[in-house]
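Forum: Protein Structure Q&A
Topic: Joint prediction for protein chains with partners

I've read a bunch of threads here and the consensus seems to be that you should model interacting components together rather than docking separate models afterwards. I'd like to see that in practice. Below is the full input, 691 residues plus whatever partners are listed. Could one of the regulars post the assembled result?
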Amino acid sequence: MAFYDGLFDSLGFRESCDAEKVDGSVNMADLLAKMKGEEVEAPWWDVPFPSLDNLHEACDALPRSRDFTEAVKDGFLAIKDTLKFVLDPLTQPLSWLLDGALYTVSIMPWWVVFIAIVFTAYKVSRSMPITSFVAAAMLWFLYIDYYDSTIQTLAIIFVCTFISVTIGVPIGIAMSRRDWLERLFIPLLDMLQTLPTFVYLIPLIFLFDVTESKLYGIAIILYAIVPVVRLTNLGIRLVDKDVVEAANAYGMTSRQKLFKVEIPLALPNIMAGINQTIMMSLAMVVIASLVSAPGLGVDVLRGIRALEIGPGFVAGFNIVLLAIMLDRVSKAALARINATQDV
Amino acid sequence: MQEKNVKISIRNLYKIFGDDPETALSFATQGMEKPELLEEHNHVLGLKDINVDIHEGEITVIMGLSGSGKSTLIRHINRLIEPTAGEIKMDDIDIMHLSDEELRVMRQTKMSMVFQKFALLPHRTVMENVALSLELRGMKAKQREQEAQKWIEKVELEGYEDSYPNQCSGGMQQRVGIARALTSNSEVMLMDEAFSALDPIVRTNMQDLLLRLQQDLKKTIIFITHDLDEALKLADHLIILKDGYIVQQGEPQHILLNPNDIYIEEFVSDINRARVLRVRSIMSEIDPKVTTFAGQVDYNDNLENVIALSKGDTTKVFQVMQDDRPVGYLKMKDLFKALVPRIIIDDD
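Posted by a regular:
Agreed with the consensus. Here's the joint model:
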């Protein structure tokens, strides 16, 4: 006898409840009760919460909790094909970019890549100490034979950051222009940022083939795009109102205002966002090794699976080193912009 | 003084801030005052029935305390703020009916603006800031820099062309702001509390600079200030605003001697009248009976100089000269009477 039987009886729903009754379906609790061969009268204070399972016990027409999760799955599977049909071609360029970048770094001789990286580090940071640090770190990777996985990780980060910025900055600008867009996007960004990273691998695995590189590319971009969108929006909203008024008073078009005033003045914030985006790509590229992203993450994953403490630790240390490298270089660029712009 | 052309005319201008300005406007036109409108209808009366003629080549100063609507008024002239009702015409062109494109062209070519907080572009050098308006018109870099250089020299900023605004002092930044406005070669210059953020000595220098430039340029300048001394120093035409309406407008000396409102009397009672009032405002017409003079004073001299000349003797009478011709006489007794603000006379 279930607790809520009385409720359905008194409301006169008994018949419609039992209409769907199937004798075969018994749940574990019923079985246990039957085995004991007795029905214990529950004390009055032991009121079960009217959850789906408890209500189902009293009325078979109501669904159980597992039917609910089942429905979520069915819903997803129902839209899966349409979603795949739309998203697949849209995201295909991402696969090409990632595969292209990975292929390029794999065929280039190590010294070309080395020079290119050190040169870029100098161009961006304009700082000798940081450039030397980058060079030393690269030599270390080469020396201990972690060059291949490091350069794969770097290639993926580079592609994903590039795409995050090219999509994220325009979204941020659009958000700064229209309050309703900001209200729409902020909860979405909050969700992307707070959703445990493993969780959004789940729908992606269903949507795309695990062998496709865009699978991890999308996961990284979804996670890493958040700060650049947020800070672009914020940066443009924080642009000095007086300067914008002056731009209007001198007859700038909204396009001129955007490129000659708003973006340059928001640049420190946008750069801070890009720095964060780079760091978050790195964090995600390690986790994305679960869905076949190559690079240092794979070494860590292998360390965990095979309990190889040595390679796992070294790969972990290399990730930290790479993180410091990327952070210092992008922060130096940010500091350079700040120096010329402090009002 | 000959009557100058009216450059900008403002007629029946109203501005009401709030959700439903149209409805609030009908209350305001029926004579509801600012506090009641705010209390009963939750709308702010920004400007109320403004009628002003701004003459060509003059400095028109709009003065008022904060919240009097002076910054709102100046922003209507280049339509940074849209009015609720009324019309503004410049050279018989109705500014209120310009399309966005026409408005932009007007702002680029006919009106320039100087701001209280300078509002320079911090990522651009002094030169690039000054040449902004020419850049927006699509002038070639070389040509516009040549033109900008001319104005940088006029405001005495040579040698700072490649500095960034954050490397300049407040006074220098505002010189950049003025040069930027002048470079656009517009007929009308709007100056919104342009010198209020500067310290007193720099401010005086800038006022002198503006007056010097104005002697050659003869631009139509609309200058906003909350400082009466500054207003009296610069103004050819003075407009005093309070709670969004015009309390009094006219020639500054005239307002000083004939304030028509207790608000203005309180305002003017604080200033150094001897320095601001001029001989021409208080002298008497030529009288054949008065023939003995203790000396001559200039028509445009201020009273401070006359007092110094008389050495404090109240019986003296001076002949007033304009361009070496006698135009009247001035009794020291009248001079001292003019120095006493009316508000104090009433107290007796």
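The interface with chain B takes residues 240, 242-243, 245-246, 248-253, 256, 260-261, 264-265, 267, 340-343 of chain A (CB under 8 Å).
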